[in-house]
Structure formats: structure tokens, C-alpha cells
């Protein structure tokens, strides 16, 4: 399959109500052909409901779902030709691996003689060729995951949906599978919509990430955009590892944090409640070699936790506010770290000084006074 | 894992002995607590059963006379044949009627499924005797069923619906239906809805998904329900006695006649023992296919 065959998805102001609760609130989202799009959000954010609307298991209360130039809003699931990988894998326990993968071929009444070759190809894609006759219960979690994947791609769908497919795997396997899924996505060229609550996973794999919260689309963008330009404090706290501190705006590029004045390279719009989002990896220990324009924060080391790949320092600013930072654990960096209780100063580059409005807070126009 | 490995390497480690002693004391305590129940089972079940088996071999001393009669006389053969045939038909009909009911209950929203199940179970709480008489009234020559069919013009003369095998089958199916529906429902309810959704997403029409996924996964429930209904039907008494009108003789009726008419406890016991062996044989065969706990609804 090549790029031409993949298909775009257009979700047009979809809402879904269950009784009095709104699971989805007027969501509009366009997914490019061949794109790897993640739906990221905490549980209850509506990401699985949205996936259900794409798969045909959830009838939206209003709005429509288009795949390519086809309105699929009310099309039954079996006519949609969308491959779905379920969180539970949903492998048929009474069938062998080969029968599971052949299920879509049988359902489509394709000639039986073509099955073995296609099953073989699909299993080869996930590196499980030769497992055709195994029972599902004989497989490990990771292998089941791959079989579910092979089953979802064997009929060459132009759109593949994945509902937290890696959440049941251990960390190491999950990371291997993330890379493998990316590779598979490139090879298939199909459009992928991927649901996850793991921000790191979303950032690792996706071309773009859509962040959902309480049934609303909060922000959509490339991983880097979300990381460096979060729209509000929800995105800032959800993406990456950050500390949020209340600040007051002085002018377009300056805010006040306690007794300190910080400069931000990005213009700051006036807002009732502004927060500084400090990502742990953006803080550096001041060794006196940094440029003069950089933000400096004097503080005290409260705790240092060695985490193998990095060292996490818990710091206290002069007014008692706690922040934390992460240092790489190589020798040069470790040597710069002062003992507990020692005073030092950390620096934050204006480019890394991210000021966000508090999520769900009133817009500035109402706060003229 | 690691802890066991260490324990196996050092069996003399003292805390192991202590825990062993503790466990032994606990076992003794559990046995003591269970003893009233064990005693009840022993007194009320095992002793009478032993006595029953003893009786079946007794006719002025040890004798195989009763068994000889069962296996040689036509009336016995005939009765067992009728009993098995009726049980088989009842089981099939209960399956045909029970499967859709259990299926509906398993896919409906919880509130509705509870209603469906309640409707199945509710008659279960009224006396078998009352229900048998109810069927007699409904199915008799001038009963509601015959009158309605005559009124609509579907038949010209009343059908013989009771006092025969047909009546026995109708009433028995009704009474045994819950024993089909409940194990079926228990099995169906455990089929993950993910599998059905997956089947649909992979291109299976609802019928295809039902035939290839849902039905095969419900088979253990089918087997459980069929076994329960069949076994219960083999020994069914009140309903066939009343609704069958004495003309359809089932094995249990043979037992009662041997006692009531001939006071022949030995012959009655022998019939019971043969029935019991049939039931155990069925359970044995089925338990090779499905775990017994599943059939009895423990799992």
C-alpha cells in the first residue's frame, strides 16, 4: 500500500450526550491522509468515545464523521473498513492465531485460497510468521498485541484506530512496540488514530497530538508545539514534567514571580491568572558562564534523588516556593551539584520561560479593572 | 518466585515448620467447623443411598432379581426409552426457547435484562403442582388453548394436548426452562463485548459475528443447560404424572408404582439405582468436556 491509498478523516462538530453528561462537546478535528494522530487525555476526557464514533460503536448526538469523501456517521461498523486494535486485544479465544487473522478475510468472503498468503504477510509484518497454528492462550502479552495488529491490517484498511494498545505491556516492551508501531505506520502508509493517556507515548509516536479534557478539544499540534507552546496550564501540566507557579504580568515580555522578575521571549497576553510552567529539564545550574539576559533564580537544595539516567533536584526559592529540576547523570553535571542545604542559583532561558493562562479561567476582556 | 526457590533450597528453615504447624491446626479447626454439615450429608444422603442400593439387591437374601427384571422385561425397556425420548425432546425445546431468552437478557441494558430474567424465574417460585394443574386446565379439550384455536378457525376439532406425551413435554419444558436460561445467561454475559465489536470492526455482519464468535463462545453454557435440563427431566415425577394422565409412563413413575401398587421396595430401588447410574454417566461424559463447576453454576 502506498501513501495515495490512505485517507483523511474529518470530524465535524461532534457532540455526544449520555443522559445529562456530555462525553463530547462540539469537537472538530481534521486528520490528514497518512497522518499518525494521537488523542491524548486523562481518563474520562472523551478520547475513547471519540474513537468509538470513528469505529461506529458510538452514535454521535450531533455532528458528522467523514472518512475520505464519505459520510460515515451512521454507517454500521462492519461496513466501515477500518482496522481497530482494542485495548484488550479482543482476540477470539476459540480460534488459532491464523484463524484470528483470517477472520476479516472470511467475513469479506474472499476466496479461501488467498487466505494463507495474506495471513502470512500480515503476520510477517509483525514478525510472527509461523505462529499460525498457535492458540491465543499460548501467546505472551506482546505477541497477542502483535496478532491483534496483524488482524487489523490484513484487510488493508485505509484507516487504523488503536485504543491504548500498549497499556497492558511492561515498560520495556511498550517502548519497543512504540518504535515498531511507528515503523509499521510508515510501511503501511495508512492513517492512524491512536488513543492514549500516556503523554510520552503520544509525543514519541505522533505526527500530531490532540489533547482532550472533559469532552473538549483543548489543543492540537505537533509534539514540539505542544511542549514548547502549551495553550494553557492544563496542557502545560499534562505534557512533560512541569511545575506551575503563579506569576503576575508586568509587560508583554516580563512577569513577576515572588520578588523576581522573569523575561519571556514569547509575548504574554494579559490574563487574570497567569502561571509560569517550568519544565524540569529546562532549568540549569548557574555556573556563571550564562549570558546576562538569562533569568536567574536563587534557591536552596532541599533534596536530591538519583534516578539512574538523571538526577532530580528539589529546590526551594527564597520565598519558600518549591520547584524541581532534572540534571543528566554524567560526571561533569554531577560535579556541579552542591550538597543539600547549599544556596545556589538556577537559570531559565527566556525562550524556555513559558507563561500560560490558568485552564478554564475567565478570558482577559472581562478583567478590564 | 524467588522466595519459594530459597525455601526449597533450605527446607530446614524454622519459620517454615512453624507455618506448617499453624496450617495443620487450621485444617483441624476447619474440619471441626464443617463436621455438622458433613454429619448432615452423611446421615441424610449417604446412609439412605447405601440403604437404597442395598434394597435393590435384596429379595429374601442377596439377589439380582430386580435388575434381571429391568433388563429383560419389555415394560421397563419401554419406560426407559420413553423417559430418554421425552427428556431429549424437552431438552431440545428448552434450548430452542431458552437460547433467545438468554441472548436477549445478555445484550439488553441491565434493567431490562433483570426484567427478562425475573419473568423466567418468577414461575419457578410457584409450586410445581400448581403449575401442572394450570397446564391441565389450559390444555384440556375445552381449555383456553383449544377454544382459541377453534375460535380462530385453525382447527375443526379440539386437539389432544394433555393426558399424553405432548402434554408432558409442554408442561415439563415450561418448568425446566429456567435451568436452561440461567447457565446460558451466565455464560453469555461473560463473553466480552469487545469481541463482538472487534468482529464487527473486522467486517463481520451481525449474523457472521454471531455464528463465528458469539455462538461458539456460548457453547459451554449450551452444554451446561442441556445437561441440567436432561438430567432433571430423567427423574421428573409430578408433572408427567399429572399432565401425562398415567398413559405416558416415565422412569420415576415406575418407582412410585412399584411401591404404591406392589409395595415392592426392592424393584423400586433397582429402578432408582439404574436412573442414578444414567445420571452419573451423563455427568461424567459432560465433565470431560466442560468443568463440572460450570454446569452447576459455581463459576
UniProtKB/TrEMBL annotation, chain A:
- Domain ABC transporter stretches: 9-239
Example GO CC term: the record gives:
ATP-binding cassette (ABC) transporter complex
Instruction: Name one process (GO BP) from the record.
Output: putrescine transport
Q: What is its EC number?
A: 7.6.2.11
PROSITE patterns per the UniProt record, alphabetical: ABC_TRANSPORTER_1, ABC_TRANSPORTER_2
Q: Which GO terms describe its molecular function?
A: ABC-type polyamine transporter activity; ATP binding; ATP hydrolysis activity
Q: What keywords were assigned to this record? A: ATP-binding, Cell membrane, Membrane, Nucleotide-binding, Translocase, Transport
Q: Which reaction does it catalyse?
A: ATP + H2O + polyamine-[polyamine-binding protein]Side 1 = ADP + phosphate + polyamineSide 2 + [polyamine-binding protein]Side 1
As for what it does, the entry says:
Part of the ABC transporter complex PotABCD involved in spermidine/putrescine import. Responsible for energy coupling to the transport system.
Q: State whether it acts alone or in a complex, and with which partners, per the record.
A: The complex is composed of two ATP-binding proteins (PotA), two transmembrane proteins (PotB and PotC) and a solute-binding protein (PotD).
Which family, according to the similarity comment?
Belongs to the ABC transporter superfamily. Spermidine/putrescine importer (TC 3.A.1.11.1) family.
Q: What protein is this chain from?
A: Spermidine/putrescine import ATP-binding protein PotA
Q: Which species does this protein come from?
A: Vreelandella sedimenti
Gene responsible for this protein: potA
Amino acid at each position: 500500500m502506498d501513501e495515495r491509498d490512505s485517507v483523511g478523516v474529518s470530524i465535524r462538530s461532534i457532540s455526544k450526550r449520555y443522559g445529562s453528561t456530555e462525553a463530547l462537546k462540539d469537537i472538530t478535528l481534521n486528520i490528514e491522509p497518512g497522518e499518525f494522530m494521537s488523542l491524548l487525555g486523562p481518563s474520562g476526557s472523551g478520547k475513547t468515545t471519540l474513537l468509538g464514533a470513528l469505529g461506529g460503536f458510538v452514535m454521535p448526538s450531533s455532528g458528522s464523521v467523514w472518512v475520505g469523501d464519505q459520510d460515515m456517521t451512521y454507517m454500521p461498523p462492519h461496513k466501515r473498513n477500518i482496522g481497530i486494535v482494542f485495548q484488550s486485544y479482543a482476540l477470539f479465544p476459540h480460534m488459532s492465531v491464523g484463524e484470528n487473522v483470517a477472520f476479516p478475510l472470511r467475513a469479506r468472503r474472499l476466496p479461501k485460497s488467498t487466505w494463507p498468503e495474506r495471513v502470512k504477510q500480515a503476520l510477517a509484518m509483525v514478525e510472527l510468521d509461523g505462529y499460525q497454528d498457535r492458540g491465543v492462550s499460548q501467546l505472551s502479552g506482546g505477541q497477542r498485541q502483535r496478532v491483534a495488529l496483524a488482524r487489523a491490517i490484513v484487510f488493508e484498511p485505509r484507516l487504523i484506530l488503536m485504543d491504548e494498545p500498549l497499556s497492558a505491556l511492561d515498560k520495556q516492551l511498550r517502548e519497543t512496540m512504540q518504535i515498531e508501531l511507528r515503523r509499521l505506520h510508515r510501511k503501511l502508509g495508512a492513517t492512524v488514530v491512536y488513543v492514549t493517556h500516556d503523554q510520552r507515548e503520544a509525543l514519541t509516536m505522533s505526527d500530531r497530538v490532540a489533547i482532550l479534557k472533559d469532552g473538549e478539544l483543548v489543543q492540537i499540534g505537533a509534539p514540539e508545539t505542544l511542549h514548547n507552546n502549551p495553550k494553557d496550564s492544563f496542557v502545560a501540566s499534562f505534557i512533560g514534567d512541569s511545575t506551575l507557579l503563579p506569576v503576575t504580568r508586568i509587560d508583554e515580555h516580563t512577569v513577576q514571580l515572588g520578588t523576581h522578575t522573569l523575561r519571556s521571549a514569547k509575548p504574554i497576553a494579559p490574563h487574570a491568572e497567569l502561571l509560569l510552567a517550568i519544565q524540569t529539564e529546562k532549568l540549569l545550574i548557574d555556573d556563571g558562564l550564562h549570558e546576562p539576559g538569562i533569568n536567574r533564580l536563587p534557591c536552596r537544595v532541599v533534596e536530591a534523588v538519583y534516578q539512574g539516567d538523571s538526577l532530580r533536584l528539589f529546590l526551594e526559592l527564597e520565598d519558600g516556593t518549591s520547584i524541581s529540576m532534572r540534571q543528566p547523570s554524567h560526571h561533569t553535571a554531577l560535579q556541579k551539584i552542591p550538597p543539600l542545604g547549599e544556596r545556589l542559583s538556577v537559570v531559565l532561558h527566556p525562550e524556555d520561560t513559558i507563561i500560560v493562562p490558568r485552564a478554564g479561567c475567565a478570558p482577559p476582556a472581562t478583567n478590564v479593572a | 518466585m524467588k522466595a519459594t526457590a530459597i525455601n526449597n533450597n533450605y527446607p530446614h528453615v524454622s519459620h517454615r515448620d512453624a507455618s506448617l504447624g499453624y496450617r495443620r491446626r487450621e485444617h483441624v479447626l476447619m474440619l471441626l467447623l464443617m463436621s455438622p454439615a458433613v454429619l448432615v450429608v452423611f446421615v441424610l444422603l449417604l446412609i439412605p443411598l447405601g440403604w437404597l442400593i442395598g434394597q435393590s439387591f435384596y429379595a429374601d437374601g442377596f439377589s439380582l432379581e430386580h435388575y434381571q427384571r429391568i433388563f429383560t422385561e419389555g415394560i421397563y425397556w419401554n419406560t426407559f426409552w420413553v423417559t430418554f425420548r421425552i427428556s431429549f425432546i424437552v431438552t431440545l425445546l428448552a434450548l430452542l426457547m431458552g437460547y433467545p431468552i438468554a441472548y436477549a437478557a445478555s445484550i439488553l441494558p441491565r434493567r431490562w435484562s433483570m426484567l427478562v430474567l425475573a419473568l423466567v424465574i418468577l414461575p419457578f417460585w410457584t409450586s410445581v403442582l400448581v403449575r401442572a394443574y394450570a397446564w391441565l386446565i389450559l390444555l384440556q379439550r375445552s381449555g383456553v388453548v383449544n377454544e382459541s384455536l377453534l375460535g380462530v378457525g385453525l382447527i375443526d376439532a379440539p386437539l389432544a394436548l394433555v393426558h399424553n406425551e405432548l402434554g408432558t413435554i409442554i408442561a415439563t419444558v415450561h418448568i425446566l426452562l429456567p435451568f436452561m436460561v440461567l447457565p446460558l445467561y451466565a455464560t453469555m454475559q461473560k463473553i466480552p463485548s469487545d469481541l463482538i465489536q472487534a468482529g464487527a470492526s473486522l467486517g463481520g455482519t451481525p449474523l457472521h459475528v454471531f455464528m463465528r464468535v458469539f455462538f461458539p463462545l456460548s457453547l459451554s453454557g449450551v452444554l451446561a443447560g442441556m445437561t441440567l435440563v436432561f438430567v432433571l427431566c430423567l427423574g421428573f415425577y409430578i408433572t408427567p404424572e399429572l399432565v401425562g394422565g398415567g398413559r405416558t409412563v416415565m422412569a420415576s413413575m415406575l418407582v412410585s408404582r412399584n411401591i404404591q401398587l406392589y409395595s415392592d421396595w426392592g424393584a423400586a430401588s433397582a429402578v432408582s439405582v439404574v436412573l442414578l447410574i444414567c445420571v452419573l454417566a451423563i455427568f461424567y461424559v459432560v465433565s470431560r468436556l466442560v468443568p463440572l463447576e460450570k454446569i452447576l453454576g459455581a463459576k
